[in-house]
Amino acid sequence: MEFDSIECVSYSDGGDGLEEDDIPQLHHHPHVIRSHFSSSKTTTTHNNKNNNNNGSSIICDGNNNNGGIGIHPASSVHELLECPVCTNSMYPPIHQCHNGHTICSTCKARVHNRCPTCRQELGDIRCLALEKVAESLELPCKYGSLGCPEIFPYYSKLKHEAACNFRPYNCPYAGSECAVIGDIPYLVTHLRDDHKVDMHSGCTFNHRYVKSNPREVENATWMLTVFNCFGQYFCLHFEAFQLGMAPVYMAFLRFMGDETDAQNYTYSLEVGGNGRKLIWEGTPRSIRDSHRKVRDSHDGLVIQRNMALFFSGGDRKELKLRVTGRIWKEQQNPDEGACIPNLCS
């Protein structure tokens, strides 16, 4: 949805199926992810006692009868546990072809039950030896380069990484399907340079939104503004969307950080006109919660169209909304043991 005009003033208080020809021929291939960070890969080597403790890797016996193990020097067990198609770590059931090449259960369906390395039929053979080896591994969190110091058993690592406090954040821009991830400083630069988002310093704001034809309501974001306040970053969203059969306008704030830190802040939004006003006060949601999740929960200032047109005045044919707000932080009073509001100076 396009704007006819916008005024922004900030005041400071002081996977589809693969065709056969597309099946990868190499056991490992590049995997491109748009992100700011690059997790360091830690190599864990399984030593074979009969091979003078030289680094070796395990390949399951293709016939799956005698439990034989093939030794291939210069490869690590950690690399063997990477699926050759998606390059993600493999978890039971780990499948293999008759030649011992492995693949994860998800990609087995994607390659139409054909081995991506040798093109042989995969069948239903489990690589039980590799699954057992994985149970003995302890690996660092893949977000170690971002500060996570934890080490986990192989099969617990994935669950931890899904909720790791050091994992990167998704881009909070909601106007497009943006796949960029990274830490907060990187995302702030990305929003400014790539999405051309307005950046403001201060804990109070005053926005005026104008739309010549308010009956044209689409499921699209109108505007995103980023505020630097208390040394943190906040995303102010304002948009129009359809709620059932009725179009509504909504403003809400998201905190660029984790949920626990977001709980330290409070914000208020106010819109009004013609002697009436609506006020919303609440805690900003973390950008860990998607834009759509926050919007669909109505966790913000929601304005019905009739009320928005009433606030706009005039002939009620043009939308003119002024939304003001402020952000503050609750601080503990050491003398009285009570929380007092701390306004940004």
TrEMBL record:
It comes from the Eukaryota. Pathway: Protein modification; protein ubiquitination. Residues 136-196 form the SIAH-type domain. It holds the Pfam family Sina_ZnF. Residues 38-54 have a biased composition (Low complexity). PROSITE patterns: ZF_RING_2, ZF_SIAH. InterPro entries: 7-in-absentia-prot_TRAF-dom, E3_ubiquitin-ligase_SINA, Sina-like_RING, TRAF-like, Znf_RING, Znf_RING/FYVE/PHD, Znf_SIAH. One of its GO terms (biological process) is ubiquitin-dependent protein catabolic process. Its EC number is 2.3.2.27. One of its GO terms (molecular function) is ubiquitin protein ligase activity. Residues 35-54 are annotated as: Disordered. Keywords: Metal-binding, Transferase, Ubl conjugation pathway, Zinc, Zinc-finger. One of its GO terms (cellular component) is cytoplasm. Residues 83-119 form the RING-type domain. It catalyses: S-ubiquitinyl-[E2 ubiquitin-conjugating enzyme]-L-cysteine + [acceptor protein]-L-lysine = [E2 ubiquitin-conjugating enzyme]-L-cysteine + N(6)-ubiquitinyl-[acceptor protein]-L-lysine. Belongs to the SINA (Seven in absentia) family. This is RING-type E3 ubiquitin transferase.
